[in-house]
Amino acid sequence: MAYSDFSLAKVKNDFGLTLDESRNLFAETKPVLPSEALTNLLIDYIPLATSISTEKARSEFLIAPILAEVRRLLKNRISLFSGKEFNVEPERGLQGFCDYIISGSQEQLFITAPVITIFEAKKEDIIGGLGQCVAAMIAAQRFNQNQGNEVERIYGSVTTGTNWRFLILEATTVSIDPIEYYIKEVDKILGILLQPFQLSSV
Fold this sequence. Notes:
It is built from five helices and seven strands. With about 200 residues, the chain is of the alpha/beta class.
């Protein structure tokens, strides 16, 4: 069993989670203007990725440039992993590959302090991807606890590249933002992705 085997109902039941879908989690989060470089890339890449319309194209042309921008904005004080195997508790199904992991550490050779897990929606089904994202968030939470890293909140996202849905895990409560953000709001998406590394809180 792996992250991809979890539905939202299964991960909730298996790990005794409480789901909260009632809050606009990022209503107060300030947008962050993208660099001119990212803006120009997206002008070219959005129509290209949507025309090719494969998961690989959306990952390479839309998701990766946005995440690289987050790393640049934080002056490379974080690390970014793509397609990384992340096996934490295989006996509980907390194993497999994560599309993207953002770590609060500068260490790029291996994962040391996962803060954000991001999954690409298969067949552009964001709701269907929530279960595996939450499972990876639990894995990140337990990984941090085992390593003595004090990370109270684990952030997650399921994205098609053009659409983004965000989650927060605190203890055993998973808050799922009811708002879906679109790539034309890339400044808001950047603000949300930067939030775990800011002093302000939701």
